[in-house]
Amino acid sequence: MTRKTIIAIAALSFAFPGSMLAQKVGTSSLQFLKVMPTARATAMGDAYATLATGADAVFWNPAGLSTSNGIEATSTLTMWLFDTRQGAIAAAIPIEDWGTFGVQLQYVDFGTIEETRVDHLGFSGTGTSQKYNPGLTGAEFSPWSYLVGVTYARPMTDKFGIGVSVKFVQESLYGATTGSVIVPVSGGGTATETYKTYANSFLLDFGMLYNTGFRSIRIGVSVQNFGPQVKFAEETFPAPMALRFGTAADLYGPNGLIGADETNRLTAAYDIFQPNDYAQQMHFGLEYEFAELIAIRAGYKNNYDSERFTYGGGVRSAVEGYLFRLDYSYAGMGEYLGAAHRISFGVHF
């Protein structure tokens, strides 16, 4: 089984990058899918293809659900750029002899935007009272995006698990379902054309998780947002498909590579991330945890325009049979964009 597992992981890892690299930079749709939830993961620089377990695995690698040993629910609030907010909730329910089922919901609120139109562009008034209008109509609109999904995962052996997610996504660029534009017509005059301002699609995630059996070394692979072209108005664009290939190990801990320690754990993680609309990127993450109570995390993201270093931490506490956890992450986005903050809360029972 070990040899077959390694072959399967290698095949999944190398089957996609060639076709992904053929896409032009910045040409994929549904960009909100790139804003990942989970404070623990983002504090570790998104190096999470292998560490994703429990309910949070539905966002990163569905195979992570195969290790679930109880019912779990989690939620994340992301305070993104320019007052954008993302909410994400997920749950995992293991069923004996069947595997683990998961559900997820994500919603993005982009706030309110002032409407501009070409036919409102220009100067108004006369003489010294002239004012330039950059196209403002006086109206406002509120774009939004959401995702709902279901996941199924199961262990194939005591070391190898697989998982798959089916997701329905929809994004509205205008807030309403249709918009209109004034266009010239042959013979003179103008006409109003109506067009669809939203797009939706069904997408798939699938992944594998493999415990090598040597100390604490694990390997994880996931393909995200696999699906058809997405159509906005009259144009079609690919979904933001991506491949994650990662490995992780405890440097210190009960099965540490460097040293054994029952109280302190230091975990290192590394992911290769290949999107279909950008060059290959790399994610590095570290997590130190004391007595399974308090954790400190840091990460680094390579080959990004603005994101680089990430930080965060978390606490866990058991109360009457319930295990609660609270996590926070900070990601600097550069001098002009500010920072992204995430807060996650989860319960396991």
Largest sheet: 14 strands, antiparallel, barrel
Helix content: under 10%
DSSP strand (E) fraction? Answer: over 45%
What radius of gyration results from the CA coordinates?
23 Å
* Global outline: elongated
The quaternary structure here is: single chain
CATH C-level category:
Mainly Beta
Distance between the termini: 32 Å
CATH topology: Porin
Tell me the series of helices and strands, N- to C-terminal.
HHHHEEEEEEEEEEEEEEEEEEEEE
Strand order of the largest sheet: 1-2-3-6-7-10-11-14-16-17-18-19-20-21
Count of structural domains: 1
What class do helices, strands and sheet pairing give?
A: mainly beta
| Unreliable residue stretches | 5-11, 13-22
How many strand units?
21
CATH architecture: Beta Barrel
Number of DSSP helical runs: 4
Question: Could you please describe the fold and organization of this structure?
Answer:
By secondary structure, the protein is mostly beta strands. The protein has helices spanning 2-14, 17-21, 39-43, 57-60; strands spanning 72-79, 85-95, 99-109, 113-124, 131-141, 144-155, 160-172, 178-184, 190-196, 198-211, 218-226, 230-232, 235-237, 242-253, 259-260, 264-275, 281-290, 294-302, 309-319, 322-332, 339-348. Strand 2 (85-95) and strand 3 form a beta hairpin. The relative contact order is 0.19.
